[in-house]
Amino acid sequence: MINKQVADINEAFKGVTDNMTFMFGGFGLSGIPENCIAKLVELEVKGLTCISNNAGVDDFGLGLLLHKRQINKMISSYVGENDEFERQMLSGELDVELIPQGTLAERCRAAQAGFPAIYTPAGYGTEVAEGKETRDFDGKMYVLEHAFKADFAFIKAWKGDAAGNLIFKGTARNFNPNMCGAAKITVVEVEELVPVGELDPNQIHIPGIFVQRIFQGKNYEKRIEQRTVRTRN
Amino acid sequence: MLDKNGIAKRIAQEVQDGYYVNLGIGIPTLVANYVRDDIEVEFQSENGVLGMGPFPFDGDEDADIINAGKQTITTLPGASFFDSAMSFSMIRGKHVDLTILGSMEVAENGDIANWKIPGKMVKGMGGAMDLVASAENIIVAMMHTNKAGASKLLKRCSLPLTGVGCVKKIVTNLAVIEVTDKGFKLLERAPGVSVEEIQKATEGTLIIEGEIPEMSI
Questions:
Q1: Is residue B64 included in any domain, yes or no?
Q2: Under an 8 A CB cutoff, do B66 and A27 touch?
Q3: What is the distance, to the nearest Å, from the Cα of residue B120 to the centroid of all Cα atoms in its chain?
């Protein structure tokens, strides 16, 4: 077994500096690496480029980094529900690249899988395709989209072991598996770090080969963005 | 004239047995409430779930189980979770049978604009561009006119496009319309709405052939 477990989050963050490009798993606030985001706020690293489907809300998730102006550029598909984000974007303080959600996922996956670029039909004929190479395959037009290049991927998993094997829960899975191994260094925080051998190899979503550093996370808030319920009879 | 639930009810008639369906945020979400219960349908949400159920009972909500609108949901027997790349493999790979989404504008050539108002509202396209670029069966659910009373069915979209030539059918508070090579073809009128009213609310070319039946909902 190749050990990926680090002593603590400080060791997991070795090499994190200003002006880097980071990937963050999560959809809305579901499955975001809460501990890693809190650490980045604490370290006050600046000039960051962040690849994340969303930008959190005003007072949680990546909204915390936005609030402290640590982010220079966001690459996302949807940034609603965040007034500070919208303000910084419309005023030009924040550089924002909005891209289709499937393209975001596939640009991560391409980086993970060793493809330099992929062709997708998403965005053809729109401003998203402006300045990009397009090509006809069997009578349909596609846009060339390049694999992301990132320094760190920050991942949140449900269960993991010291070998770096990961299991995700529910829709907290989202972009997390696609970002593992898509950056130079993949850092994973888990809700539950279990002894090696406890996870059934048949059930593992991401094998440890895609992970460089793993640690036990703590104090998960797991905030719900839109609490929608039925009333019991 | 229909309200939002009425639009959802009419669209629910388009959902067939065995369909995998992706519902957008807003009116499309309501469609799930009106699908006949004698057919089998699975709802896909692009954040990574197939087989979505109703909202959870108060107290059962789980931050790890949400839909694309970030609402807490439940899953039905037979449901599955998956990552975002696989979710869009379902969409891009044409495995999803029907896509229902809202819009700000639709043009008579099938172009759709629903993600950006320059300088004003820029929330992003989310999964909409992937959905409209690949889905073969797209129904737009929207009001016929905007809040200012201007038509949303146009000759050409004025807002930045989400996709080109992709919308096949539109259900509004006034009408059911098919997008054809020659323009918007009026198929049905909403209860109590005249052809003239629909014509007046439609900026794009409206094709009216023969008697236009009233919707049955």
A1: no
A2: yes
A3: 23
Whole-angstrom distance between the N-terminal and C-terminal Cα of chain B? 12
**β-bridge mates for residue A74, sequence order:** A50, A96
Instruction: Name the residue type at position A111.
Output: A
Residues of B forming the active site? 46
CATH code, B138: 3.40.1080.10
Complex prediction ipTM: 0.97
Query: Which of A 120-139 lie inside 8 A of B, CB atoms?
Result: 120-128
| Residue B25 counted as domain residue | yes
Find how far residue B122's CA is from the centre of its chain.
20
- Tokens in use for A54? 């969303």
d(CA B154, CA B165): 13
The residue behind tokens 């303080």 is A93
Q: A 184-223 residues with CB below 8 A of B? A: 205, 222-223
Query: CB neighbours (10 Å) of residue A91?
Result: 8
**Given its phi and psi angles, is residue A32 left (phi above 0), alpha (psi -120 to 50 degrees) or beta?**
beta
Indicate which of B22, B64, B99 best probes the interface with A, i.e. most A CBs within 10 Å of its own CB. B64
Q: pTM for the full model?
A: 0.96
> Which segments of A58-111 are extended strands (E)?
71-76, 95-98
Identify whether the C-beta of residue B46 lies closer than 8 Å to the C-beta of residue B23: no
Integer Cα distance of A72 and A66 in angstroms? 9
B213 burial type by CB count under 10 A (0-12 exposed, 13-18 middle, 19+ buried): exposed
Cross-chain CB nearest to A170 (options B65, B85, B163): B65
- Going by C-alpha positions, the residue among B24, B32, B180 that lies closest to residue B106 is B180
Tell me the residue length of chain B.
Answer: 217
Nearest to B84 among A86, A170, A178 (CB): A178
Chain B, nearest residue to A89 by Cα = B122
Q: What pLDDT is attached to residue B217? A: 85
Question: What range does the domain containing B19 cover?
Answer: 4-45+91-207
d(CA A73, CA B206): 44
- Token pair in block for residue B77: 């027997």
**Domain assignment of residue B74, yes or no:** no
- Residue B141: inside a domain: yes
Chain segment A72-121, per-residue pLDDT in tens: 999 999 987 788 888 898 888 999 999 999 999 999 999 999 999 999 99
Domains in chain A (CATH in brackets) are 9-109+148-216 (3.40.1080.10)
Name the domain count of chain B.
Answer: 1
pLDDT tens column, B162-209: 999 999 999 999 999 999 999 999 999 999 999 999 999 999 999 999
